[in-house]
Design a protein that fits this description.
six-stranded mixed β-sheet; 20 strands; 30% helix
Length: 415
């Protein structure tokens, strides 16, 4: 899973957590050399590790003075400089990549609607987005993409694969896909404009969820619409006696989204604390805008990262929810987006975050209260023991069980 999140895509596997600053600050056109110098200054003043990976940062300041001739040279030089920090989350985005990221934040893009990642050298489908060409074609999580339009994916990066899979609406892409031990199968899929929805209340068909238990699947915190979508789903399920929040394979996104959603579920409790390069600690508390006090079970797995860990950590530490599944990814760092001249940008790690109990989960993850595995056999037979466990826990909750019995009694009397 570690390699998977190193090269996260704007399709949704964005295992990053960030503030959005500098978007409102206009940037004047500058030379390629000054673009590089601007990137150097930002790292020098903002990067969370003041030692910059225990190196003399000044050595980079004029290293490419006689080399940078155009923007492409500056991009390569900035990438090289950033790589010396040994932080996979601090990265440079050229104008094309930055535009695609903005599109995903705005909630739309053109393609087939699948989240992809590289793990152990294999290009995998992490999750198809609901009601998209990829899902309708039958692609599933853990499918390995062997070829894209006849070209092997061996050694391919996530960015390069995403470029090949995405394309204008109405055009086709051909994927050769292998699923487990089954023979490879060819999928011809027509691209569409994908409206990225972060929330679904549609539970998997193969797990029966009682009518008195609500289900909300939150697939990403990236879109600006994530909070409004979640709040609508929460209001829709407020009449239920218990609630399941599914954060599995949710790679994170906007820090503000995680805080806003946690605020809906907590009453005046600590949500998260952040610590900057100078050691300054800032603690964010929930307001009194509690939307529901239902019993909650949260589902997580190794693909739950960043903002997912902030939300699940806040609910766990405040005894607001029971956590079920597998240990989360372990990304406890905060990135800030800094806009650069010419349409490019940089993600810079500026803080680490702590759960309400003061726990630093970076590279450690959040442990579930109930650890439940999903095996290959479960996937093949369309079983979801994690979701089934969540239902079991809520059914045993005294308040939920009592309400369910009361409703059954009312039905019997009525009939």
């Amino acid at each position: 899973m570690k390699d998977l999140f190193k090269r996260i895509t704007v399709l949704g596997l964005m295992a990053l957590l960030f503030y959005v600053s500098a978007f409102l600050n206009p940037v004047l056109a500058q030379t390629p050399q000054s673009l590089y110098d601007r990137a150097w200054k930002l790292i020098n003043t903002k990067f969370v590790d003041q030692t910059n990976n225990e190196q003399d940062w000044s050595r980079w300041r004029h290293r490419y003075d006689n080399v940078i001739k155009d923007d492409e040279d500056a991009y390569v030089a900035i990438d090289t400089m950033i790589s010396s920090l040994n932080d996979v989350y601090t990265k440079f985005l050229n104008p094309k990549d930055f535009k695609e990221e903005n599109d995903s934040i705005q909630g739309s893009l053109q393609g087939i609607g699948v989240q992809i990642g590289v793990r152990e050298g294999k290009l995998l489908v992490i999750a198809p987005i609901e009601d998209t060409p990829g899902e309708r074609a039958g692609l599933k999580a853990e499918d390995e993409i062997l070829e894209i339009d006849g070209q092997s994916t061996k050694g391919i990066t996530v960015e390069a694969a995403a470029d090949k899979i995405r394309g204008p609406e109405g055009t086709q892409v051909t994927l050769l896909v292998k699923r487990g031990s089954e023979p490879a199968k060819t999928y011809k899929i027509t691209r569409e404009k994908i409206e990225i929805k972060s929330v679904s209340t549609k539970a998997p068909k193969f797990v029966k969820i009682p009518e008195n238990i609500g289900y909300i699947r939150l697939s990403s915190f990236i879109s600006r619409n994530a909070t409004s979508e979640f709040e609508a789903a929460l209001v829709e399920n407020c009449n239920k006696d218990g609630l399941i929040i599914d954060l599995r394979s949710n790679p994170g996104g906007l820090l503000t989204n995680a805080i806003y959603i946690a605020d809906m579920l907590l009453d005046s409790k600590v949500i998260v604390s952040t610590v900057d390069r100078d050691g300054y600690k800032d603690t964010t508390r929930a307001t009194q805008r509690l939307v529901t006090d239902q019993p909650i079970v949260v589902l997580i797995n190794g693909g739950s990262a960043s903002a997912s860990e902030i939300l699940s950590g806040a609910l766990k530490d405040n005894n607001r929810a029971i956590i079920v599944g597998k240990k989360s990814f372990g990304k406890g760092l905060v990135q800030e987006i800094n806009r650069l001249p010419g349409g490019s940008a940089m993600h810079i790690t500026i803080q680490k975050y702590l759960t309400p109990n003061g726990t630093d989960i970076n590279k450690k993850g959040i442990m579930p209260d109930y650890e439940v595995e999903i095996t290959e056999e479960d996937v093949k037979k369309e079983r979801d023991p994690q979701l089934a466990k969540a239902v079991e826990i809520l059914q045993k909750d005294k308040a939920v069980a009592k309400s369910a019995q009361s409703k059954e009694l009312k039905v019997e009397i009525k009939n």
